[in-house]
Amino acid sequence: MNATLGQPPVETSEYQLDSETLSSCELLRGLGSSRQQDHVPQCSEDGRFRHIQCGSSGAECWCVNAVGAEISGTRRNGSAVYCLTSCQLQRQQAQVEGNSLLVPVCQASGEYRPVQCDRARGQCWCVDLEGMEIYGTRQNGEPSQCPGSCEVRSRRLLHGTGKHSPPQCSAAGTFLPVQCTFVNTTDRTLFDLLHTFNQFPKVFQTFRGFRQMFPEVSSFCFCADSRGRELPNTGVELLLDEVYDTAFSGLEPGRSFSQTNMYRILQRRFLAIQLALTGRFR
């Protein structure tokens, strides 16, 4: 299997990926389909390569690793293929090499246990779906909770990687179904929500206060999938001079934009427009 269509495989962690982009598997799948190749990569719902890949006829199948490269000796024609997960493969390799420090702990499903530990040092940390350490989670003892995919992206933005428009996350750390950004109407550039909210959190409590400080900014909201990506044909620009402070104006400022009055009202207004335009919320 040519896992990368002429390009060397690159292992990318969930922390490094921008959730608005396609994964390596999805990109290769799109290329394979457009070129009508014999093998088009099969991807899981979260964008990873499926452990078992098959040819277009479905007769020949083989196992792949996390970057979609074929594992030698696993190709079968007309017979069942049994594949190990990335965690199981890494665990097996570490045990063969006798490196006890690199033996990951896998769940019953074969996926990485969200918390991995170095018992010799007494340290533990959270890992992403590919077993890579999530920045800022290493500590003495086990973390009580690991960040969700939305929180992971927010952490990346805080460390200067990607756009300065943090996603709206739920209490569980997942992406909220409605995502909103702000746009400068003069040049259509993305408004720096990250630093502006950190500097002026109270401004985001009322639309009146926000309009006074940023009169040339509008909002853009859309329905998002589980990875925070915009669902097709759901984006709507909301002009802030047409939005008024209502039911939530008395609530205290939140720790993030998703906990502000502005987001709550934008979310309601957006869903009302979606319902009027399409007859449904999503």
From TrEMBL:
CDD domains: TY. The keyword Glycoprotein applies. InterPro entries: MHC-II_Gamma/Thyroglobulin (IPR052001), Thyroglobulin_1 (IPR000716), Thyroglobulin_1_sf (IPR036857). PROSITE patterns: THYROGLOBULIN_1_2 (PS51162). It holds the Pfam family Thyroglobulin_1. The keyword Glycoprotein applies. It is found in: Secreted. Disulfide bonds join C54-C61, C63-C83, C87-C106, C117-C124, C126-C146, C150-C169. One of its GO terms (cellular component) is extracellular region. Residues 22-83, 84-146, 147-248 form the Thyroglobulin type-1 domain. Its main location: secreted. SUPFAM superfamilies: Thyroglobulin type-1 domain. Keywords: Disulfide bond, Glycoprotein, Secreted, Signal. This is Thyroglobulin type-1 domain-containing protein.
